[in-house]
Write a structure and sequence with these properties.
heterodimer, A: 311 residues, two-stranded antiparallel ribbon, 14 helices, 2 strands, 73% helix, flat, B: 288 residues, mainly alpha, 2 domains
Chain lengths: 311, 288
């Protein structure tokens, strides 16, 4: 009897030790639960005829009506296509250019110039999308933009960029890469710096050219980092960079066909049209496809290398 | 060896080209803001304007109250946000970093899951505006962004795991130091690099935020510098309010000047914190 109660006391003591530690973690956990978990309940708005005065619980159910409305016109297809197509292009180009920049940076031996390049290439990442939209406007504006003033100087007519949708896939991709490549290269560079010089020395002894060294030594050693970067991006393939797609085309209706993504659509339905039902249906649709992607993706990763699986 | 020299030259060429590509837009923004309005409207901006003028900045100087207030709001939000985030993140990461933490897997999952799935902006918006009533308060610019990136928590946790010797914590415990005392007296002083990195990443986040203001702020008195830029973007009339109108106002160049004023502090401060920034990105990439 006595031994048993002593054991319980000991266990109690052990748990008591954790109380202050868990108390320290509590503010963060409570915040995450409120900010990230409570809104999950709000996903049911997608199936309701939301009414501000009645609230989420009080509003009437309306089945799939919001979804019918969303999928009835082309909008659902267009925003899905845009979100996916841009993200796929972004992921591939960002990785290729990020690796290129990292390899070139790693080649530069002088510490000063290396730091200079890195500082400059990273600068765009620190600018808010609002500022970036001003920068883009300085180039693309109808009357004042640099491109049009150059075109006019050459005797060519101006291009009204903010009304011509054919240019926007390139503009948006360019702006995205302009802002992200420097940031993306850091991870690759960190891996490259860690590569043992003896690999290259051995390759050199074998008479391998620089290109061959990159092909057979550098790129294979970058594979794990590349997979990690790709993994993180693919999980978010149905989420778009709202700032990019909202700020850079300056929310021009004529361009929606090629600039509208799920996130900008949700935003406009919510704040500009005040259509909560439609907005939450689109948001719900996004959450579900995201979730399914991650589950499938995690399954694939666990099959190939269980260590890298997320859960 | 000749191949190497060629490759080195190629590297420099590529990086110089990239650097120009990164800087040129800023250069154009500055020269655009310094060009003469009527000339710019007629001939467009250029990298070296033929007619210079300070009238855009003179015009903005008259509006110093708007920008002064905007900067005050931005600075207040950034400072409060960073401090709150630091305290909450460090404590939560410390808890997660403790070996043999009860329910450790569950806690970890709670954090990782937030990166994968969320309720979306609609329900978040309704919750914050209808339940917590943060609309048109300074909190609207602080609270929704507090722990936006669960990666930061994992980054700090990893730092603790590899940089705080468990023996030190154990020794302090035997000496009778409370758990919170250990955190303050031992863990914090050993964590200066990660504190700097985290403060930086979170600070830039707050400084650059304009989205929360779009959702939660209607009151122009609460506009941060980025929200002011956003408002000018949405309507060029924003700056012209109360200036009587007239064609002589530098509408176009003043917009560019406003963007310069908005971007300048980060551009000036950036070279000083560049190293911490790079370190932060590298550290944050380690999986939890």
């Amino acid at each position: 009897m006595q031994a048993k109660s002593a054991g319980r006391k000991k266990r109690n003591l052990q748990y008591r030790k954790w109380v202050p530690i868990i108390l320290m973690g509590l503010p963060g956990l409570i915040y995450l639960i409120i900010n990230n978990y409570v809104p999950l309940y709000g996903l049911i708005i997608a199936f309701k005829n939301y009414n501000y005065s009645l609230g989420i619980t009080g509003s009437e159910w309306c089945g799939f009506k919001n979804f019918e409305y969303l999928f009835k016109n082309d909008a659902a297809w267009i925003i899905t296509r845009n979100t996916l197509a841009y993200n796929i292009a972004f992921i591939i180009l960002k990785i290729i250019l990020g690796i290129a920049v990292a390899i070139f940076l790693n080649e530069v031996r002088s510490k000063r110039s290396k730091k200079f390049y890195q500082t400059v290439i990273l600068l765009p990442y620190l600018m808010s999308m609002v500022v970036v939209s001003y920068l883009a406007y300085a180039f693309l504006g109808d009357r004042t933009g640099l491109i049009n003033s150059l075109l006019n100087a050459l005797g060519k007519p101006s291009i009204t960029f903010y009304m011509s949708k054919q240019y926007w896939p390139f503009i948006l991709t360019f702006v995205y890469l302009w802002r992200q490549v420097g940031y993306g290269s850091i991870l690759f560079l960190a891996t490259l710096v860690g590569i043992d010089d003896t690999y290259y020395e051995a390759a050199e002894l074998d008479g391998a050219s620089k290109w061959k060294q990159i092909h057979y030594v550098t790129l294979p050693l970058l594979k794990p980092t590349t997979i990690m970067v790709a993994t993180m991006s693919v999980g978010n393939i149905f989420r778009s960079d709202f700032g990019l797609f909202y700020q850079i085309p300056r929310n021009q209706g004529l361009l929606y066909n090629v600039t509208d993504t799920i996130d900008t659509y949700v935003f406009r339905a919510l704040l500009q049209d005040g259509n909560i039902g439609l907005s939450s249906a689109a948001a719900f649709y996004q959450s579900i496809v995201c979730f399914v992607t991650i589950i499938i993706f995690n399954y694939v990763i666990r099959k190939s290398s269980s260590e890298d699986a997320l859960f | 060896m000749r191949g190497h020299k060629k490759f080195l030259a190629l590297s420099h060429a590529f990086l110089i080209f990239g650097s120009i590509l990164c800087i040129a837009p800023f250069w154009l923004l500055v020269t655009a803001s310094l060009s003469e309005e009527s000339y710019a409207v007629k001939n467009g901006y250029s990298f070296i304007p033929k007619k210079w003028s300070l009238s855009a900045y003179q015009f903005l100087l008259q509006k110093w109250q708007i920008f002064g207030r905007g900067y005050l709001i931005t600075i207040a939000v950034t400072v409060i946000g960073v401090l709150l985030c630091l305290v909450i993140t460090m404590m939560l990461a410390y808890m997660l970093s403790r070996p043999k933490l009860p329910c450790g897997k569950l806690f970890n999952f709670i954090i990782i899951f937030t990166m994968l799935f969320n309720g979306g902006i609609v329900s978040t918006y309704i919750m914050y505006s209808q339940v917590f009533h943060i609309k048109n308060t300074l909190w609207a610019l602080i609270i929704p962004n507090l722990l936006t990136n669960a990666f930061f928590i994992i980054m700090v946790k990893n730092y603790f795991n590899s940089n705080i010797p468990e023996e030190l914590v154990e020794a302090a415990r035997i000496d009778g130091t409370s758990e919170f005392g250990i955190f303050i007296k031992i863990v914090m002083p050993l964590s200066k690099p990660i504190i700097a990195t985290l403060a930086l990443l979170v600070g830039v986040n707050y400084w650059n935020d304009w989205q929360n203001a779009m959702y939660y702020i209607d009151d122009q008195k609460l506009y941060s510098i980025q929200s002011i830029l956003n408002a000018i973007n949405e309507s060029s009339q924003y700056l012209m309010q109360g200036s009587g109108g007239g064609a002589s106002l530098p509408t176009e160049t003043a917009r560019m000047a406003a963007a310069v004023i908005g971007a300048l502090p980060i551009i000036i401060a950036y070279p000083f914190f560049q190293e911490y920034f790079v370190r932060g990105i590298t550290a944050g990439a380690v999986k939890g």
